[in-house]
Amino acid sequence: MRGKLTIQWDEFCSTMAAASSSNHYREPKSQFSLISRGKIMPLISHWTFAFLILTASRCFADDDHEMEEFLKREYSLSKPYQGVGSSGSSHWELMGDAMVTTEQVRLTPDMQSRQGAVWSRIPCHLKDWEMQVHFKIHGQGKKNLNGDGLAIWYTKERMQKGPVFGNMDNFTGLGVFVDTYPNEEKHLERIFPFVLAMVGNGTISYDHERDGRPTELGGCNAMVRNLKHDTFLFIRYVRRRLTVMIDIDGQHEWRDCLDIPGVRLPQGYYFGASAITGDLSDNHDIISLKLYQLTVFRSQKEEEEEEEEITIPSVDNMDLLRLGESDEGMSGIAIFFTVLFSMLGCIFLIVIGLVVYSHWNESRRKRFY
């Protein structure tokens, strides 16, 4: 995905594209300018032109350059949060314990038994989109003495309180969760905080006791609490493919979290963010939600395949994803004990074999003498 090297390449591509599209070119002051009337300068110009053509073709051939992105302010939330929570003309609405400050929208304070949310008032009818979330989770609690986490939503329902990170259970749409507290302690191989995604169709319940494992599409650990640098979450939905990445190391580079094809999300749902605390707590802050419309090139075959209107959220081959998850679950402690008992079994069989052989050899010797 887009690491530091890719970002630098993208910036270089953009610079080259801008240079090639401009009619004005300022000749650099170098030794070559002194011999621009000679034979070397035309040769350099030809090589420069060829290099620009090659660079441009590389840029536009890259997958990231098959699409254009446009910030959609009506679906975005950013400073100074004008009118949010107080004006009916605002595109965003607060719920529960959420409050607006000059620096962030605080979904919950670092206090017990709180829940809050911010929801868009406008349904989103974009086919392909990308959401960049600037967030912060911090509090006084030490490791594993904090909770519970926040969620980013794209759902049919809005402004509904509930137990799933401050939103209703059995939701319809997409939820991306930053879960900061492990409820299922026996799965020690999963490190928290953990980012995961789930698609609901209105009948699927989120399993708190198992930290959402039965219905998750995938995820990754993300140490996001009490960091001094900015933390970001990236959610992209393009060509029915859901991609989630994180930028939490202060290096300004995205790290892969999950990438799932065959995700079917209807248009006309609402974006939102919510958080909840219980016996343990944290400050859950949203600094910005920036939504980009993606203009994506599609082949005629792709257009025909995506012609059918999606009315119910779903994921293709969900059973295979769950099978893969169960296979992945065979790790860590489970693998250790499997190997241990296998070795003990082998040792036991060897001992039995030696005893049987000893008895057989002894009886043979008695018959011989």
From TrEMBL:
Transmembrane segments: 333-357
Superkingdom of source: Eukaryota
Pfam families reported for this sequence: Lectin_leg-like
GO biological process: endoplasmic reticulum to Golgi vesicle-mediated transport
Entry membrane topology: Single-pass type I membrane protein; Single-pass membrane protein
Keyword Transmembrane helix: yes
Keywords (A to Z) from UniProt: Disulfide bond, Glycoprotein, Golgi apparatus, Lectin, Membrane, Metal-binding, Signal, Transmembrane, Transmembrane helix
GO cellular component: COPII-coated ER to Golgi transport vesicle; endoplasmic reticulum membrane; endoplasmic reticulum-Golgi intermediate compartment; Golgi membrane
GO molecular function annotations of the record: D-mannose binding; metal ion binding
Protein name: Lectin, mannose-binding 2-like a
Phylogenetic placement of the source organism: Eukaryota, Metazoa, Chordata, Craniata, Vertebrata
